[in-house]
Amino acid sequence: MPIPPKLCLAQINTTVGDLAGNQKKILESLRFARSRGANLVTFPELAVTGYPPEDLLFKEKFVSKNLETLRALIPHTGGLAAVVGFVDRDRKGLLYNAAAFIGDQKLLCVYRKKFLPNYGVFDEKRYFAPGDEWGVVNWRGTKIALTICEDIWPTDSGVYAKNYPGRRSLLINISASPVHAGKQAERLRLVKNLARTTGSTVIYHNLVGGQDELVFDGGSLVVAPDGRILAEAGRFEEDFILSNEFRGPAPALKRGEEVYRALVLGTRDYLHKNRFQKALIGLSGGIDSALVAAIAVDALGKENVIGVTMPSRFTSKETLRDAKILSKNLGIACHAIPMDEIFSTTLKTLKPLFAGLKTGLAEENLQARIRGNLLMALSNKFGHLVLTTGNKSEMATGYCTLYGDMAGGFAVIKDVPKTLVFKLARYRNRLSPKNVIPQSVLRRPPSAELRPNQKDRDSLPPYAELDKFLELYVEKDLSADAIIRRGLRKDVVYRAARMVDGNEYKRRQSPPGVKITPKAFGRDRRMPITNRYAP
After folding, report:
1. Sign of the C-alpha dihedral, residues 68, 62, 23, 134?
2. Residue 437 pLDDT greater than 50, yes or no
3. Mean pLDDT on 288-298
4. What is the tens place of the pLDDT at every residue in 68-98?
5. Residue 157 — φ and ψ, nearest 5°?
6. Which of 109, 149, 334, 400 is catalytic?
7. How far is CA 373 from its chain centroid?
8. C-alpha distances out from residue 291 to 178, 240, 270, 416, 420, Å
């Protein structure tokens, strides 16, 4: 089947709940498509409401307003057709994740998503009923089949079935597929197979943008019936694919670039969509805060990032120096707030109660909480959002302080293992003529600097082993024994498993952060805090 010569994929960045803003983007895209001669325009899944709208769907007025927004688009489709994702409602009040086919100022077809994902980050069965009919429409002599996201995953009763009515068509799939490392390669395999199996030209139209923990990376596709990639939209950016400007497949992104761009987009959209302009970061002189600062600058601009150093008696001259060099390299403002006087005063206040007790964790965590208080005071005073700097290895094992280094509004690298932190820092350095993150930061053994000569390795297994364990235990749900059989040391496995299992209460109280692995803490992995199961 030939591709309609006047196709436009509008890969737009929508905002959940911003019905007026999303409508404006859709109308602007229709005007753009018309100006370029397009006559069929597609939009991503739930373009009207943003994805995922979650419990906004329990608000009857929100659903009604979404329907009004859809109807308001119809008069703007003169001379063309549009496929628009929205929330449909039947007479019984049941809700559907739906796609409207609007052509020549008429609503010609409404397709309701048949296969509702209910795993990982998806919870669609909480809100939607499944549709019971396939959506096939003939428009200007072209057979068009409508599907939504999960509908194109292989099942015996789905689009791969021999009796599927949308075979040998222009098969349009509007989607909201969040990214994790390697996700685009999975989509390419899926869409190529779909095109060959159904004998269809497939439009895979993905959402782009950040929404809380999720990042949608775009990468929309047009694939020919023989599996050839005719066009691929940009990743991590708004983009338009026009059929008279097909540019073929895009070069595959390497893991470092893919993850880094996801973190930048997720950070930018979290701040901007929540109406923050500037970010505050506590700069320790270590690798984690250095990477977060670089991401923030790339997301928000150097003028909108403020660093704060808060040295104590345990802060080395080297880390303080590196924090200042980093700030200079990034071109950000950096304020110094020595915290030792506050620490000493607090210890003096607590002395009657602490008398005779050994100095230890309470004193270490006190320093982290003083720093958290200082950052939050600045946040309250100036309205800037605090970005926390803990990584996935620390969050997994509880190597972090509640109301201390965990205090803030957004946890940029909470799903980034420590070994990947180093790789991302090196990747960021390669983007600049000179190293933005000092080499001394990359070489220095990680330390919280809360006691003399402290090193992370004193409290944690080696990061290379720990991160491998986390991949198998958290992301792949393997048992401790199964992991040991894969070659990890028994003492490391049992120790790390106890740390992960015992720190759910901390993770539950952490800020949201960008998901970049197949299974992140929070949305993906939801373990009970009160839990006596000890395998």
Report:
1. negative
2. yes
3. 97
4. 999 999 999 999 999 999 999 999 999 999 9
5. -105, 10
6. 149
7. 27
8. 23, 31, 18, 11, 11
Query: Which tokens go with 28?
Result: 């602007």
Does the annotation mark 149 as catalytic? Answer: yes
Task: Please say whether the beta carbons of 424 and 264 come within 8 A.
Answer: no
State how far the alpha carbon of 102 is from the alpha carbons of 4, 75, 135, 141, 420, in Å: 16, 9, 13, 15, 46
H-helix or E-strand containing 25? Answer: helix 19-35
Query: Does the pLDDT at position 1 exceed 80?
Result: no
Euclidean distance between CA atoms 290 and 2, whole angstroms: 51
- Domain ranges in the chain are 7-246, 259-455+503-508, 461-501
Task: Reply yes or no on whether 113 is catalytic.
Answer: yes
Residue type, 208: V
Mean pLDDT, the chain, whole residue set: 94
Active-site residue, from 25, 113, 183, 418: 113
Of the candidate ranges 236-240, 284-288, 290-294, the one whose mean pLDDT is the lowest: 284-288
Helical spans, DSSP H, in 331-417: 340-354, 361-382, 392-397
Q: Report, as an integer, the average pLDDT of 176-195.
A: 94
Is 414 labeled as catalytic in the residue annotation? no
Q: What is the pLDDT of residues 359-413, one digit of tens each?
A: 999 999 999 999 999 999 999 999 999 999 999 999 999 999 999 999 999 999 9
User: How confident is the model over 15-19, as a mean pLDDT?
Assistant: 97
Task: Assign a CATH topology to domain 259-455+503-508.
Answer: Rossmann fold (3.40.50)
User: Is the backbone peptide bond immediately before 44 cis, with ω within 30 degrees of 0?
Assistant: no
Cα separation, 200 vs 228, whole angstroms: 11
Is 191 within 8 Å of 149 (Cβ atoms)?
A: no
Q: What is the DSSP letter of 218?
A: B
SS3 243: helix
Please say whether the beta carbons of 334 and 309 come within 8 A: yes
Q: Which of 6, 45, 124, 150 is catalytic?
A: 45
CA–CA separation, 364 and 374 (whole Å): 16
Q: How confident is the model at residue 216 (pLDDT cuts 50, 70, 90)?
A: very high
pLDDT at 2 over 80: no
Between CA 82 and CA 85 the distance in angstroms is: 10
Whole-angstrom distance, CA of residue 169 vs CA of residue 204:
14
What sections of 240-339 are H helices per DSSP?
A: 255-273, 287-300, 317-330
Residue 268's DSSP bridge partners are none
Classified as helix, coil or strand, 478 is coil
Is residue 236 within 8 Å of 265, Cβ to Cβ?
yes
Side by side, which strands form the sheet with 305-309?
333-336, 305-309, 279-282, 385-388, 410-411
**0.70 exceeded by the pTM?**
yes
Which CATH number is 7-246 given?
3.60.110.10
